[in-house]
Records
---
Amino acid sequence: MTSGSDWQTRVGRAWADEWRRTDRSFAGLTGHLLATIADQPGTRVLDIGCGAGELTLAVASARPEASVVGVDVSGDLIATAQARGECRAVFHHGDAGQFVDPAGKPDLLISRHGVMFFADPPAVFRHLAGSAAPGARLVFSCFRDPAENPWAGLFAPLFAPAPPEPAPPEPAPSEPVLAFPPGPFAFADPAHVERCLTGWCDIRFTPVDFRYVAGAGEDPVADAVGFFSRIGPAAARLAATDPAERGDVQANMAAILQDHLRDGEVAFPAAAWIVTALSDEGTRANPLV
Ligand SMILES: C[S@@+](CC[C@H](N)C(=O)[O-])C[C@H]1O[C@@H](n2cnc3c(N)ncnc32)[C@H](O)[C@@H]1O
């Protein structure tokens, strides 16, 4: 599980430090996402969970006439996006579940893997639909099943099984029962995503496969060890490991990664959905502004 408070602290700081390598890992996906976004109308674009802003900046460059805004709950990542200073996109520090763009209602909402971490996804998507322009479009990417993303379980044999997560409190009768806690694979199941997209209709899923590049450069294996020591499922486990034992764990990580070194890169097959939807004006429960 990766919660909003993780993103506001440890995980957000790691992603801010590692933005060049996280952008590299998603590079094979970004082109697919930009092609889907290019097919959609929109002059006020909101990038949800924009992180260090690569998608925001790319869309701002592709749509010089559009207003392009990114919002993210991590102050470290928003500061990183602002410091890139590459173009006129505007970045706001805030929670997507409460954010209302003071400059106007977005008509195109986008995200690269920024929508799987909400504690209450139906409430957030209802808010996003309610604060968007009538007929707004939604385009986002998210990972498919971990079984189709082998990098995610790569280092599991190196760590003792994670302690079971505390059972969530019993939901009140009116609250949605969330089968998947917030995290990178929370939106792997299309039926679950459809249940989460309150306020949106015409929901479509396109599977996209890409190369997840974890290591490159002079020493691709060392580069990949450095990357996975900060980003992804092994990072939290490594941080919790006795410092005296971390070097041994990282040596074992290097041995595993060596098997995936090809042509100067450590890379893995990765599987994502690109999800598109239309705001459903008829079901708006939270009209704003
Ligand atoms: C996997 S990262 C993706 C970041 C960025 N979209 C990218 O492609 O590099 C997920 C992002 O969602 C953000 N996030 C998580 N929960 C959020 C929330 N409730 N509101 C806004 N952003 C959130 C995190 O801070 C993080 O930047």
---
Amino acid sequence: MTEIQQDAVLAQFREYILGPLRFANVLSCFELGIVDALRQEPASGMTAERIAKDTGLRVGAVEQMLLLPVKDGLIDHDAESGAYRLSGIAQVQESDLARVLPWMDMMKEVCLRQLYWLTESVRSGKVVGLKELYDFDGNFYEASTHYPQLQKAWGGMMDSVTGFIDPWFHEHLEVPQNAKVLDIAGNTGLGAVLAVEHKRDKDISVACFDFAEKETEALETFREHGVADRCSFIGGDVFEAVPTGFDVVMIKHFLDMFDKENVYRILTNVYEALGVGGQVVVLVPVYPEDITRSSSVDFFPAYFYGCTMAEGGPQKVSTYAKWMEDCGFEVTKVMAQDIAAMPADMIPVHGIVCGTRTQS
Ligand SMILES: C[S@@+](CC[C@H](N)C(=O)[O-])C[C@H]1O[C@@H](n2cnc3c(N)ncnc32)[C@H](O)[C@@H]1O
């Protein structure tokens, strides 16, 4: 190995080592109210003394916490006047920041804490962090029904991903007039609401299917969005039984949570619950054919193994299509998001795979 190659590898290790510290420093600047304080004086900016007064912090602490954001161009520091101003952060639209901040909360509350036990989780096939932190045996989604702080930190990020990607999903999804749709693993009910709203012309109704504990929140979501007459909730476990009587089954952000064997169990249960002509429509994070083209592999393996399931992880979209065929469906659509058109912060790359049950 040449010296240059060795230097590049060492620099890569430095980036790994620094990642969690950089993350914590920047998130704290938001949590401490420093960013909000600076928003009040966008033009003249504020000195460290003034920020300290507004936020109740020590001047020295403000100066230290702002060194990295200044170095990274998020905040500007005028050495002469001593004023700090939002610079990079001021360039980001509110709606984009509203997508980024829930990710940061989730990283702190869910990932940083549990990933301490990633190695043990991979070894044991159990989410050891949940056992250590909450004395909980089971996966993150089960735990989130017992611990509101987990649901809050994770649910905000999940809804922000769903709110962002569902318009793309519905743009590529065709459903029959008056279709009865089942949204498997529908979580807060937001997916059901968005389906009804995007398919207004089709007059569809959507049942959100998830653990029974999610019912109250889902019904509240339906009421808030004024679609309680079009949406309903069914409590249950997809491995036990999938409700019957639906024309279309949506499975969004769910198959990636499981190993192949469990994905087959889910798809087979869905196949059996659908009548001939029934459709399954899957929206799922996927790995691009060339994994260097996105940040998906930087996130999902550690997230699924250490934080949520101790199994699973996305596959390539072609793999999901093959698995769907193996479970009896005729595959009718396979597509992936255009990475070049995604916002720069976006981590998951999504795929859509649709299939129809053609045999009785
Ligand atoms: C990643 S979220 C998907 C949320 C939603 N589909 C979306 O796209 O926003 C996974 C959901 O699966 C639910 N879930 C996990 N295991 C389940 C099971 N065995 N049966 C039914 N729902 C399950 C969880 O409660 C959680 O709401």
---
Amino acid sequence: MSASTSSFADDHKSSLSAFQSGEERFVWGLDKHTGDLWYLEDDTATESRAFVSERIVCPVPGCAAKLTTAHRTKKRDGLQHFARGGGHSRESIFHSQGCALIQDWLRRNYPRSKAQREEYTNEKGERRADVLLTGPDGDRIAFEVQYSSLTPEAWQRRHDSYQRQGIIDVWLFGHTSNQLKLTADGTVQANPTHEAVVQSGQALMFLSPDLSVVGVAVGVGHPFDADADRYLDQRVPVFNELVSARLEIHSLTDLRPNTRHGLGGEWLHGLYARTAALGTHNTTALAQAARTRERRRQEREAKQRTWEARRSPQQQRIRALFGGVERWSRSEALAEIRAYFGDYLKGRIDYIVNPTSPPELLVQWQCVIYFELIAGQSSPFGARDAFRAIERCGIGMSTDAFKQVVRYLYQLEDGGFLRQLPGYGRYSTFAPTQSGAWW
Ligand SMILES: [Zn+2]
């Protein structure tokens, strides 16, 4: 049995295909005299035949048919029904052989514990375990060999029932396509029941009775970096991330029952420990990053409030000055507006392009729109509101004034100082942006 983990892709691929194609090996029967498991050693078919037909029956629940042996030169010797196949599905043979394998493994390695098949776990018969291991101290671990389909709800009910009874349940899913599906690149395609098992804190495991190995789904986790506020590329093998998880194959002899996760052993223990450590690290780091984000948000808001407190009085002063303008080019309003923007005008208001105008002469009607409806404001408005604001200030404009106003508002939207609101009217509605209102 070659079952150690391989780090080479080719080895992994061939061990995966061996895992999936594990043949239907019928080697465990039941001794009808003792009710115990009986194992057919290889190359003993002929000498065991008389004994088998007299005492050994089929272990598939509800069958108990008499068996005989088959000697094979290329494959291993095996048990078989007298009537061909016994009418069992492959899955029920695998299930019965898997249970027998687990029971035998537990009995051999833990002689002080009791390993029983399909025993009722309480008097009410609430839950029957495939194999129930009872330790010398009375602690119990139920092994479930699951070849048939199982809904997440049905799994949860069984899991909860075990928990209520203080039993740790270990789920070993079948290696056939009913449960184990692999993509071409060897990725495990987990179903919702598998997800539920992993969410409960247990690794997703598959059993191949033929090879006496367990395949464990190992996914990739990433550490979160609080300072960078993102997950790092570094890869940590974890059991609780099934997206792109791969199967790592381990001999049953590498695993050990324990009362923590049901199954442990050095390698599996390492996987659980790394997963837990990454989980703890990420919980702390994510909380820290959230606190940092919140602190920065508060700092930004405080800064904005300070800024607004400085800008508001300037805006009010400018609005008040619009009333007393006689010559715009020499007005106090224009001087204040130029001081207000400094280097931050950035296309908010156009200059008058006219050879006779002094340089840096801002368009008066645009200044009015900007300070009446945008600077320090938050209410939505349309072209009509803008036009009325100009009229209120008594500014004379050319006949295409309304068109110019509309064009100006779209220009401000392009510059990021206004945003258009969804609406149904003929003319668009705008609202000041942060940059429009306060800079
Ligand atoms: Zn049978």
